[in-house]
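Deviations from the work plan: none for this task. Representative record:
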Amino acid sequence: MILFSVVLFVVLILVGLDIGFAMITAALIGMLFKGGGGVDIAQAPLSMLGGIDETALVAIPLFILAGELMNRGGVTLRLINWSMAMVGHMRGSLSQVSLTTNLVMAGISGSAVADASAIGTAMIPSMKREGYRRGYPEAVIACGAMLGPILPPSIPMIVYAVLANLSIIRLFLAGIIPGFMLLAGYMAICAWQARRHGYKSRPRASWPERAQVTRASIWALMMPVLIIAGIRFGLLTDTEAAAFVAVYALLVGLAVYRELKPGELGSAFYSAGRTMAVVLFLLAAAGPFSWLISESRVAATIAKGILGVSDQPWVVLLTVNVFLILVGKILEPLPAMIITLPALLPIGAQLGMDPIQYAMILILNLMTGMLTPPVGILLFVTSAVGRTPIGPIVREIVPFFIWSLIVLALICAFPPLTLWLPGLGR
Amino acid sequence: MGAPMPATTVRPAAHATSGWRSLVLRADRVVCWTGRRAVALTLAMVLIFCFAQVLDRYLLKTQFDAWDQIARIGMLWCAFVGAAMALRERRNVVIDIIDRHLPQRVRRVRDRLFDATLLALAATLFYKGLDVVAVGNFQDIVGTPFTYAVSYASLTVGMVFFMLFLALRLLIPDAAAPLDAFARDESDTPGTHP
């Protein structure tokens, strides 16, 4: 029956049913026809509520709100100007600026799609005007935005920490080195592409100019520092840090940069609320499906199947990665996490891996799924922003995707890449 | 390929002529107005209570210790009402991988079939959600004057919004979401996701 539910879910999303409701439909059918006379379907609303009724998840709407207030308050624009002054002289300057801006944005909003649409709207038209190949600007923005969930604060990390009962701050710290490795590789790929295709670079900004731009952007640049420092030194919980940064973005937009008007606040709050509702509804909708899977003991069967592939831990880990890449092709990262974690968590324990390293492997793997068709959400957001078909974007994304897989392999092979920072000061 | 569905560009005025349509669209405006304000207010409540927790710890030092519980209730309400608003404004997440290969007429039939299916699902979740609310009525949320019924009612009320919007889509399939100060024309911007 569970297999039928999974197949039904895949068919429903492929024919175009809302993803959340497709999960609920498949779970309800599974519950109704479950062996032993079925299950009372009151379990469905109960597990939907249970899926999101968690205090730690309150950080999600607040980080999304902070991102929205930043965009409307002129923070994003200042970050682009700052990046332009710092890396605008590098080969393929606009692509480098996009990545650097994403790096700073990633340290504030925690949402890949919010970052992709904010930076994409500003940068894709400029890159097109400078003659970048079709699909390349969108590919750069999509890959840059993928840094959002890898670098702290990260919505998927919050969800993972809740599901696996891990420390959110340790997970946040574990993402920093892989995030910078991804960024370094992406920047190198941009430089290589710029050399191949003759993309322009800008004149190098002088040090006084850089200092001036940094002064103008200092309020924006302080945000990630405040978040990490606040949580790391125990002054704020992750949820409080999210509230703090949202209030900070509100005050900076209203009183410092004065680009956020009081009359816009209703619209900003609504827009952020609707965005987070889409995220949380997917989480809630995954609840009944996850319940069905755990009740049917499918998770244990999958875990047993993967562990039985080989006696060699690296082969098992490789199998987990291949399994997740396949899952990431048809499922969004957050529902994928909720549905597959019950099966995958025991494997990590069985392999004797540190739960933080294992978490980073799973998270990075699922995030790369956002770059691959058919369900790669970042492809679709940048495609919509740039009004470019998916095909050319997928072609241009290939080198970035390969580098992402290399970083994934490196964090599998070298635990200190993810464990060194969380281990400091313990 | 898949994408968050863009907001439709058809304007409500095009259909606001006949009697029942006009009435339905006016009701839609009221429901959207209410839903949008509910989403904005509940999110504001989440922010205020979470920030108040910080202020309380370092400045106010009151004995109240359920700031996070109330913020969580606000998040649940914001999530379910907001999800219904996202559906109304076609900002929900769907994969439109086969759309370009389907003739428009088939697509229309499929969309109506999906809307009817979602309506039935929302009605089921609403009905079964009432049982959950009834159970929640006997469980106190520690530190607050509320019971879990207040949290659980978020799903049932959210499903009411879903049902209203889906019924509207079945009656007037191409009715665009009404615009107001909280929701401007966003047809050029992409959908939303983590």
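Chain B touches chain A through 70 residues (CB under 8 Å).
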